[in-house]
Design brief:
The chain is built from 7 helices and 14 strands. With about 280 residues, the protein is α/β, with parallel strands linked by helices. Among the domains are: about 35 residues, no CATH class; about 130 residues. Helix 7 links the parallel strand 12 and strand 13. The chain starts with a helix and ends with a strand.
Amino acid sequence: MMPPKGRKHCRSLLPDVLSYLPDNISDVILMHLPCKDAVKTSILSKKWRYHWCRLTELKLDESLWKTKKDLLNPTVKFTKIIYQLLTLHEGPITKFTLNVAHLESCPEIDNFICFLSRNDIQHLVLHLPLGKMYKLPSALFTCSQLRHLNLHNCSIHHLSAFQGFNKLISLELCGVTISSEVLESLISHCPLLEQLVLDIAENSNTVEINAPMLSSFNFSGNISSICLKNVPCLVKASLECDYIKAEDLDFAKVFESCSALEYLLFNLFNSGYSGRLRYEGR
């Protein structure tokens, strides 16, 4: 039985349609696919071969290397993928997400971060393994185009060559090992910072937040270690405090310059007190 003429005609045109799609439409299609599937489009036609190498947004997670018959160590597979990206990718990468939180240890990604620093990275998300803290290379702090930075489970040391993130508007640090001095310096060198999320329970020293454009602040840890020194635009604050009594809070010190504050939420948890304080309105 012969197939209908319309269907046969459609099938014969399909390769041509794919081959002659404008680049901007091809880019949109690829960006909506998981990275693994985007790479597979290389088999569609000569035009699609290695088209994924020009993607400006990339997301790498365990779905790239996890299979039912894993013969190679996940870290080895990940290292091979990173090498291919370094070798084949062309043009800028404006958004990059790396989620390897489930690996036993952090693979070597210093070279790739250096690669991103030279390719106009604007949005960077790193979710790293919980084990030994990965020390971020100094190249990360030369990414002058960064607008969003999200870091999980890593360590930040001295910022000797750091000139500031002059375009950064959101910063999230969770499970990050960092000294009070370095944290203060990092925040104060982000003049456009609007959103700040900190989950740094190990830092017991006082940290002064100097962020004149900050409008939203979420903090988890010990509230006595935070002083909102210069935050005239702060509208919303959410603070989760561990191991501190409500009567020990120095509100004058914590909220030294919050003239625009409209919403405040406290969650207090410790052996002697468990409660919730909420404030709305000025």
